[in-house]
Design a protein that fits this description.
It is built from ten helices and seven strands. It has a single domain, classed as Alpha/Beta hydrolase fold, catalytic domain (Rossmann fold). The chain has a seven-stranded mixed β-sheet, with helices on both faces. The relative contact order is 0.17. It is 37% helix and 16% strand.
Amino acid sequence: MRLFALEVGSSGPPVVLLHGFGGSHATWDAVIPLLSKHCRILAYDLPGHRNSHPWPETGKPKVAVDAVLADLTRRGIEQFHVAGHSMGGAVAVLMALEAPQRIASLSLFAPGGFGPQINARLLGRSAAAVSPGDLRATLEAMTGWDTQVDDDAVADLAAWRSADGQADALVALSRSITRDGRQGAIPRERMAGLRMPVAVGWGTIDNVLPVAQTAALPPQFALHLLEGVGHMLPQEVPDFVSELIARNAR
């Protein structure tokens, strides 16, 4: 089975976009038109999500790491920039640790794996949500107070979340990610060994992953804190997200 990626743009450096838990390539809908002016975009559906569902195994981050790296090799893309949101941010860092020679830069937005704390109850509700009403409620809980949840985004989520076995797969994945109410943390000393440019964006009112996880980042990580922004940075501040990725990809 092949991993799905939406490809946009044919010129410029290749940029890989990795969505968060329960999302899809559509997470980046507001970012792609801005970014594709300068870059070749590959926005993936990670294993177990949307067009990459079903997948033989989805419980371990390394499954996603290996799947994305293998797909890029199949496409003949040896070096590339990576941007990841939430769980996709954790996958991006693990890709860089596994294949540092292939990753030209990392742009991370409220990335997973930066500390053990995670809102496991909210993640569980999000995993099980299928109806538009339930999906809207979980998205509103993840979004900053000043950002409206887009009706089209809710409808899009509801359409693919209703696929056979999709909700069950996400519930199982959420339980794997949040064992005992905690997530796995990538050791700071391992991240400190990364030599490519790394930029991190985080909202100060993130209700999924606490902004306190930005403490004691390696000194080479460029940190950007966004006041009044929640967890869903690609939807809340797409201009900032696209600009940071483009700057890192130059």
